[in-house]
Amino acid sequence: MEFTLVELLIVFLAIALGGLVHGTLGIGFPLVATPIIALVTDVRFAIIILLIPTMAVNITSILSGGKFIDVVKRFWFILIFIGIGSYIGTSLLVLIDPNPFRLLLALVIVFYIYTRNTSSFNWEFVRNHPTVTGSGIGTAAGFLAGTVNITMPPLIIYFTELRLTPLQIIQILNVCFFMGKITQTGTFIARDVLDLQTVLFSIPFAVFAIIILKYGISIRNRINAETYRRWLMTALKVIAILLVIQFIAAL
Question: What percentage of the chain carries pLDDT values higher than 70?
Answer without folding.
Answer: 96
